[in-house]
Amino acid sequence: MLLGGDAVARLLSPSAAADALVRALADGLDPEAGTPRTATPVPAGELLTMPAAWRSWAGVKIVGVAPGNPARGLPRITGGYLLLDGPTLRPLALLDGAALTALRTPAVTAVAIRALAVPDAREAVVFGTGPQAYGHLVAALAERPLERVHVVARDRARAEELVRRADALGVTAGVSGPDAVAGADLVLCCTSSREPLFDGRLAPARALVAAVGSHTPDAREVDTALVRRSEVYAEARSAALREAGDLLIPMAEGAVGEDCVAGTLASLADRRPASSYDRPRLFKSVGMAWEDLVLAAAVHRAAADARGSGET
Questions:
Q1: Residue 251: per-residue pLDDT
Q2: Which helix (H) or strand (E) element contains residue 138?
Q3: What's the first-to-final CA gap in the chain, in angstroms?
Q4: Are 87 and 56 in contact (CB under 8 A)?
Q5: What is the spatial distance between Cα 306 and Cα 301, in angstroms, rounded to a whole number?
Q6: What is the layout of strands, in order, in the sheet containing 45-54?
Q7: If you compute the radius of gyration of the chain from its CA atoms, what whole number of angstroms results?
């Protein structure tokens, strides 16, 4: 079964994807045992390989990261996902890898938003203009009653395009600068930046900051000041301590210790929002292979159900 990008997006909404992740965690999936990704340098950039197996499923995602592609009018991230039958390793489906990533990362953040964002969150700041920025906006709107979105990006034209897409979703949006964080309930960092995007001292105590754009120890989207101030959560401690420069750099500076991670995605999956907020919450995501597997399987099941019911 071949499932292209349009099919992946159509078959599973961000909220349904978040629900699938929560169910897997409730069923005993252990993110700490996840297989680390491997990165292989190639002339055009790097190839990432992310294998996983759980219960009746196995699979592997191969991702191409080509920094020169945007200048050619092509996506920076490419790739595919091969879903296999767990007991036999028989191929079941090939999914568009970029589309699966564009679904997976916002779904992971949605789980964190459910537990960590103030219930009445009205104002958001989105750093970035690519598929992840838009996907996170859609996911956040499904979880919280956002009314105002500030788009922050280096490219004014692309920022204005995301503003138009946000307007189409029914939320008031505009292009802003990093200082907009000072009034935010929700800050979504969805960039390829290797340096902090804003002054962490500006984030209000009621804010949730989700940093999802980097997965290497030497790159970060948030600064040490924010990490030091925040209650920190990550998908898994093992992955964060291996790949999350947002946390590893402050640790290397001696600003925080390895115990700065207060909880993980598994601890957030069944948690309800707190009644009071005395400091920012920071959720750091690097993307893990088990998430791709769970959602590839969910998309495959949805496609099979649609075929069985005669839907196209």
A1: 96
A2: helix 131-143
A3: 14
A4: yes
A5: 9
A6: 2-3, 91-96, 77-85, 57-65, 45-54, 38-42
A7: 19
